[in-house]
Amino acid sequence: MPSRLRSFAPRTAVLAIQVALFAFASDAATITGLNTNNLTIGATSADGVTGFTEIYDRDPSDAGALTNGKIAFTPPEASSPGVKVVNGTFPLSGPNPGALATTGCIMASSTATCDSEFQSGKRFKEIITKASAPVDLVFDVAAEGVQQGGAGYQVFHRLVNQTQSRLTGFTLELGFGVGENFVQSTGGDGLGFSTVFTSGPDGANAFTQYPFGLFGNAASNPNFTLDGFFSPTRAGFDVALLEDIMFSTGYYGPYKGQFGNWLSSEMTPSGGFYDDDGDPDTDAILMAWLNVDNVWEVRRELDQFDEVVSRAPITFSSLADASTFLGVTLEELSIEDLANLNLNFAIALDAGTVGFNEFTLRVGVQPVPLPASAPILIVALGLLGMMTRSRA
To answer: CA-based Rg of the chain, rounded to a whole angstrom?
Structure first.
């Protein structure tokens, strides 16, 4: 991934909605793993080559099966199928870890585990390829296998917009079944988002953020010495959390003011990246970007110790000129993290009431609506095309 991905900084991102909040004391049924019935599993490829697990709305072999999303994994950081479940008692990780333990975690299928060190490859990457229908991931459950840990399963999740459209937000739902057979979970059925999970900033039960390398204040985070490239102010979506649904309620921070609604990957601007350590398996550092005026804007430089530091923006007509100014070689790559949103939440299952052997985590996204005149224009263009063809 081109830019350095740093995750945590203070931000209250959950609205206090005290409706049917879901919190279990210590016993929970066991999530045994990812269910593959609606997936086609990609093979683990060579290091640095990204593989994919496609997600369908039914058994992929069924007639009419459709895919609107996939899981990405890139060795050596992660391997096929891209998602794994880890059981056991682990401390919470995040900006406000607290004393409560987790039941385990849902994370990328890497060599890391729930409490591995920062930037160890814990987030699984769920790519949304179409905004027209939700994407369903299914997990297997063993009700008889009781685990200890009151916060539930911590979920290390990243949503990637590749819908070729801007998005205004997202929704996560818990339920059963996939595609047209999906049924949302109901109160008291033993499945819900955890409100005992308080790992978020200011004790939030769930929160979102764009990667720290783009928006973040290093002074507030022990994992960083460099502020976000675009702003030291964190950015993401505020969210509301109910027992079986979590949804965005609007932006916080400077993202929307600078870039508009959530960009799709192919819309992200170009950046100039510096490989500071010569290691192809680590992320290069974003030093400059091709701004809205189509000029290269340098926002970082090297200090006297050859450490990357922030600087006042300065512009150049070419990336080569920017490289010469900095005294390093910059590679032009897409700033793909502008399409990536990190989600942080937990799922809890109640061993006393669970009567199911699998559940679904459904993701839906909201595209920017077309202007009221757009359908008329589309029809008119279609008629014009038919007239043109008839005259040919």
So the answer is: 22
Tokens of 321: 């000129």
Residue 370: per-residue pLDDT: 67
Rounded-to-integer distance, Cα 315 and Cα 288, Å: 9
Give the residue among 35, 3, 9, 7 at the shortest CA–CA distance from 233: 9
**Predicted model pTM:** 0.87
Q: What is the DSSP pairing of strand 135-148 with strand 153-161? A: unpaired
Determine the Cα angle at 27 with ends 199 and 85, to 5°. 60
Contacts of 284 (CB under 8 A, 6+ apart): 2, 3, 273, 274, 275, 276, 331, 333
What does the alpha-carbon distance between residue 92 and residue 89 come to, in Å, rounded to a whole number?
Answer: 9
Are the beta carbons of 51 and 126 closer than 8 angstroms? Answer: no
Q: How confident is the model at residue 387 (pLDDT cuts 50, 70, 90)?
A: very low
3-state secondary structure of 120: coil
The pLDDT tens digits of the residues spanning 317-369 come to 999 999 999 999 999 999 999 999 999 999 998 866 778 899 999 999 999 98
172, 247 Cβ separation under 8 angstroms: yes
Q: What is the pLDDT of residue 199?
A: 78
For residues 216 and 220, give the distance between their C-alpha atoms in angstroms, rounded to a whole number: 8
Q: Which of 237, 187, 238, 200 is nearest to 23 (CA)?
A: 187
Go through the chain and tell me how many residues it has: 392
Tokens 């960083």 correspond to 224
Across 173-187, b (16+ Cβ under 10 Å) vs e yields: bbbbbbbeeeeebee
For 218, phi then psi, to 5°, come to -60, -30
Question: Hey, which residues does 84 pair with through a beta bridge?
Answer: 107
Backbone angles phi, psi at 295, to 5 degrees: -125, 155
Number of other residues whose CB lies within 10 A of the CB of residue 11: 24
